[in-house]
Amino acid sequence: MTEVTMEQAAAGVLIEAAREAARNAHVPYSKFAVGAALLLTDGTIVPGTNFENASYGLSLCAETVALASANVAGRLRDVVAVGVVGGAVKAGGEMSGEEAVYPCGRCRQVLNEAAQLGGRDIAVYCASGDGRELRTHRLSELLPHAFGPGDLGIG
Fold it and tell me: Which of 120, 115, 26 lies closest to 65 in space, CA to CA?
């Protein structure tokens, strides 16, 4: 029998949900799909996927889409973890890529908003498109000395 920690179990579930979301990515320009999945305090999983636009600056990242969905449900403060997976889209819709995909700087800042509002340092699970690599971090590692609601006296 193999034992896994709750964190390992959460990582696996979130990465699989993110991988499923990435299958629906709208990436006609970059052909690089990204999926994200948030874990909320009650175990709810909120997916998101990247959404490109012909006017590139209007494109949306998967993490931002997931956070906006959580916010619509009034759950922004409840985020405890996020899983992110991405890679170039191959024939059949599968992803390639041997390196773990990380949230961009903008997404790290948006994740920080949720983390500070919820009063927690959220776990960030980053996976490669081919599923071989998984990296685990705390958001504070990926965005040290972050500016957020607490700096404005909110939170």
Answer: 26
- 63 an active-site residue? yes
Domain boundaries, given as residue ranges, for the chain: 6-152
**Which residue in 3, 16, 20, 63 is the catalytic one?**
63
Provide the 3-class DSSP secondary structure of residue 129.
Answer: coil
Residue 99's pLDDT is what?
A: 94
Reference 84, options 122, 27, 58, 43; nearest CA is 122
- Pick from 123, 135, 125: nearest CA to 79: 123
pLDDT in tens, 85-134: 999 998 777 889 999 999 999 999 999 999 999 999 999 999 999 989 99
The reply to whether CATH 3.40.140.10 applies to domain 6-152 is yes
Query: Is pLDDT above 70 for 151?
Result: yes
